[in-house]
Each structure stands twice: as structure tokens, then as C-alpha cells.
Amino acid sequence: MLAAVAVVAVVAALALAVWRIGNPPTVAQPRVTAPASGSPAPSATDPAPATPAPNGTVTADYPAALAPFYTQQLGWSPCADNAKHECATMEVPVDYAKPTGDRFTLALRKAPATQPSKRLGSLVINPGGPGGSGVEYAQYSSFVFSPGVRAAYDIVGFDPRGIGASSPVRCLSNSDMDLLFSADPTPDSAAERSTLLADVDGVTKRCAARGGARAMHMSTTEVARDMDVMRVLLGDEKLNFFGGSYGTFLGAIYADTFPKKVGRMVLDSAMSPNQTEQQEMTYDIQGFESSIDAFIDWCVARPDCALGSDKAAARQKIVDLLDSVEKNGLTTTKPGLPRIGEGWVGFAIFMCLYSDQSWPTLDKGLAQAFTGKGDILLAKGMSVVERGITGDYAPSTYLQAMIPVRCADWPRSTADPTLVAEQKKAKAAHPLWARMTGELYDNCRTWPTAGRTPEGATLAAGADPILVIGNERDPATPIGGTKQLAKDLASGILLTSDHDGHGTYYAGNSCVDSAVDGYLLRGTAPADGTTC
Q: I want to staple 219 with a disulfide (CB 3.0 to 4.6 A). Which of 233, 297, 372, 408 is the partner?
């Protein structure tokens, strides 16, 4: 169940990574100790004999048909932009049920451990999205991981199948992506709603047609299988993993699929694969309300706050602004977008809530919007989705992956009358959230293949402890989802931070950094339920 401005609901952690690059946080103190011992991987269906990995250090059981993938060689060479980093590619089957068919070529980047004598193994990373580039994440690893972690691990990022430099599937045109933002997200009549659904259904159909067979195989379940091939090729008995935002979904799926192969896994700003539509809506409301309240508290305490000094009236001013924008739009000086509506404005407001570092931008953007102009807010939104002033979106924008991945991973709307009634009640009780979220509907109803549905079962039974962390006030992956994932994982350990924004580790909370570093470097997890 997604909003009309679907990108808001599945927005990438890439924005967080970009912010960190320009705003390096306080460095946590390194703590280095010996690694935990590994344990044998479980047997697979139709396994081949246990075979040494290319480096001769890891044994692995896998179906005989997958031997060409699990035994391939990684040809590491210096990256073009940084000779200290190493780049490589690996191949995986497009369809694991047909391993002799078409293949994806995955791009990898490694930032080698800075102190080889203290090396504990590889730490595979994913920044979320879906659609964020793990290669770029690893490129800037010095801004997102502490010196202690970088000393002890080879930080390995990869672009998931169909994304970035990994046999990219580009199924959306510039006009399709603009349509996601220009469509009226809050239709006021049956005719407007019909237009909205037709527009989005059209985008989904065109994505499926352009993407072809490869677009039907971009699920997180398949990416998790790719990571297990990667684990063996990297020479690790168990997968050490750090996933942010939607990367937590990937980590949880991997852990549930290969529980005995889980090493030290940190899931930051999380969402559970077991989340239902009702739970997602509840968490979204909680996350948005807490985040907008934090911004309003900050703003009204300032003499120049665009919302004035009355906290009670501030929220209504944003509601009124969005209603005005729906009717009249905002003018801009950006070529090709002389006027923008609720889609771009709501998206930009939402993105400014990702970090308190963006609150001044939001304040200035709102002040400008009250005068009928939208340059500041549009610039924010365009920067996140990588839309240039010429109207061209960068090939790397995560929007290209949004539909294929989300439609494979997430449950569809069942049009359950009870759920519809609950949604209507929630929108009435939370008018600002309703305007930010827009019309609730199934944006995958024209996707040609079925998506997974939550099973509601305990995840990753038998896995080593998995550390799940999150901020109390996170607009993108609300704390409710983080707490649910920690509970759903059989070995989940919850660590919460009494902070704002999206992204918890290495974002300025030394208590969190110390706990995460202790876990990654010593294998010692904090007590479940710890709050920093």
C-alpha cells in the first residue's frame, strides 16, 4: 500500500549517506579484539561436495548447478578513482531456478582493512533504497564507519542486481519519473482519483515492459542469494553485514534464508519483512508525527521561524500551505518545471526531516513557499532523486529500482473493507500526514508477477545475535518497525537512540557508536533494549 507520491514511502538511505559525506560525525574510539569462530554452513538441496572457495579458506555447500557461481574468481584491481580501493565484478544467475540462463554482472568495491594485522574479515554493506549504490557507499566508507571498524574489516559494497553498475535495469523514462511527482497525490473527486490511478498504473506497466525478464528478478530474496555467493568468494565462513534503511530488509531476508551463515550483522533504521500494511501505516504515522513535531519545536523557538511562534498553529500552517499548493502550485525558476504541486513539495518536506541538519533548509523553503515560490524545496527534492536542471535523471537514481524491487518484495493491497476504513479514520485524525502521504493504493497492481507476502513467523531461527538499531524519531523507517524487526528475529538485539533523523550509527551518538563497534570488533552485543 503506497502513497501517490510513492517515492516518499520507499525513499532510499542514499540521502543519508550523501549528508554524511559532507558532514563527517565525531569519530568513535576504536576497540579491536579477536574474531568469533565460524560454524559450518547448512546443506543445500542437491548439494555439491564441500569445495574450497577460490582462496582455499572456506568450505561451502551449494546446489551442484550453482558451482560455476560459487567457485568463480574475483579479479580485484585498483579502482579508477582511488588506487587504495579495489574493484571487481562477479556473476550471478538472473533466475536461480534456471542457472544456465542469463546472468547479472554485479559490481563490487572493497576498501581494504587499514590495519591488515587486525583484520577480522569482510563487512558487506548496503545503504538501502531500494536502489542505493553499495559501491558508492563503500567509496565513502571513511565517512560512515569508525576508524576501528575500517582498521579491522575490508568494507565491501556492491550494487544489487539490476541497480547502478550491476547490469542496470532502467525501466523509467524522465517523463515517467516526473509523473510520479506531478500527479495530484490527494484527489478530491472520483475523476481525479481515476486519473491518478491511471497515471501510476501506466508507469508500472511501462516499467515492466521496458525492464523485461530481468526486472522480474530484482527481488531482495534473490539479492540475498547473491550475497551468499559473495560471502564464499570473499573467503568468509559467515557473512558480516551492515545494512541501513531498506538494507535492513535485505539483511533480515539473508538471515532468514541462511541463518547459520550469519556473522556479525548490524541492521540500522530497520523495517521487518513481516510488517503488514496496517503496521506499516501505524509506524509511518508515528514516525512522521514525531519527526515533524521535533522540527516544529526547533523552529518555533527561533525568532525567524516561517511557521511563527505558536506550536499549536504551526502544523495547521503546513496543512494550509499544502492545500494551497494543490490548488495553485508554486512557481519556480527551474527549466522544465515552471510550476510544481503537492508531489514535489511534500517529498521535499519529507526529505528535510531525514536529518536535523536539513531543518534550516526546510524553514527557508517553507518561508519561500508561503510567498508562492518553490525553488528551495524543489532544489532539495531534485538533489535527492538526482534530477538535473535539464530534466534528465541520473542513471543511478534509485527511482529506477523502486518499482521492480518494491513490487517483488512488498504485499499488495487487498482492498479489505476493514483496512480501508482504518486508513480513512487515520487520515482524518492526522491531516498533515494524510497530505504528505497522499492517496493510499496499490501501485503494483499492474505488475505482471506476484510479490511476496509476510508470513508473520519468527525470522532467522538459529542465527547468531543480530544487532538492530534505530532513532526514536525517524520519519523514513520509524522506530516501530525497528522494534518489530528486533522482536521478529529469533536472535534480535534492540538498541535505540533518543535522537532525530534517519540513520543511527556514526551519526553523532557516541553511545551508539561504542556499542556497535564493540559488537563488530569484539562480538559483544549490548543488552537487549538498551537506549542511548
A: 408
Q: What is the pLDDT of residues 299-327, one digit of tens each?
A: 999 999 999 999 989 999 999 999 999 99
Residues with Cβ < 8 Å from 77, sequence gap 6 or more?
86, 87, 88
Each residue's pLDDT tens digit, 105-160: 999 999 999 999 999 999 999 999 898 999 999 999 999 999 999 999 999 999 99
What does 173-224 look like in DSSP terms, one character per residue? -HHHHHHHHHS-SS--SHHHHHHHHHHHHHHHHHHHHHHHHHHTT--HHHHH
User: In degrees rounded to 5, what are phi and psi of residue 383?
Assistant: -65, -35
CB 60 within 8 A of CB 70: yes
DSSP state of 109: E
Instruction: Provide the CA 59 distance to its chain's centre, in angstroms.
Output: 32
Q: What is the CA radius of gyration of the chain?
A: 23
Note the pLDDT tens digit of each residue in 391-421: 999 988 888 999 999 999 987 776 778 888 8
How far is residue 398's CA from residue 159's CA, in Å, rounded to a whole number?
11
Q: What was the pLDDT predicted at 59?
A: 64
Locate 410 and state its grid cell.
512488498
Integer Cα distance of 359 and 363 in angstroms: 6
Q: Which of 116, 33, 7, 141 is nearest to 518 (CA)?
A: 33
Contacts of 466 (CB under 8 A, 6+ apart): 251, 255, 262, 265, 266, 267, 460, 489, 491, 492, 493
Classify burial at 199, counting beta carbons within 10 Å of its beta carbon; exposed 0-12, middle 13-18, buried 19 or more: middle
Question: For residue 8, is pLDDT > 50?
Answer: no
For residues 162 and 169, the answer to whether their CB atoms sit within 8 Å is: yes
**Amino acid identity, residue 405?**
V
**Could you give phi then psi for residue 242, rounded to 5 degrees?**
-125, 120
